[in-house]
Amino acid sequence: MESRVALIGIIVENEDSVEKMNLILHQFSKYIIGRMGVPYAKRNIAIISIALDAPGDVISSLSGKLGMLPGVSTKTIYSKVAYTESVGSS
After folding, report:
1. What pTM was computed for the model?
2. Is 79 among the domain residues?
3. Which CATH number covers residue 51?
4. What does the angle CA 42 – CA 45 – CA 49 come to, to the nearest 5 degrees?
5. Taking the CB of residue 68, how many other CB atoms lie within 10 A of it?
């Protein structure tokens, strides 16, 4: 299966969505390379970036599910190179 490296940028403006967001991220954890979250207290928001290595449909699914949460905005960028090796192989 073809895999791509991608980055999902997330802005959380509704704290009530954080628990659901974390549950969704846990469901996709095998594809997540890393995660960085920055709370921005001045604006009462959180800025999160998720680095992934996954098939395109998985990346789209994760981004879509996160973006449907109330007060959560996402934007996804993809690497231009696609890989044919499976996730987790050496």
Report:
1. 0.88
2. yes
3. 3.30.70.1150
4. 125
5. 12
Domain that holds residue 50: 3-83
Q: pLDDT per position in the chain (90 positions), as tens?
A: 899 999 999 999 999 999 999 999 999 999 999 999 999 999 999 999 999 999 999 999 999 999 999 999 999 999 998 888 655 554
Using CA atoms, how far apart are residues 54 and 73, in angstroms rounded to an integer?
21
Is 88 a member of any domain?
Answer: no
Amino acid letter, residue 29:
S
From CA 45, how far away is CA 27, in angstroms rounded? 23
Domain count, the chain: 1
Q: Which residues of 27-38 are buried (b: 16+ CB within 10 A; e: fewer)?
A: ebeebbeeeeee
Q: With pLDDT > 70 as the criterion, what percentage of the chain qualifies?
A: 93
- CA 45 to CA 58: how far, in whole Å? 26
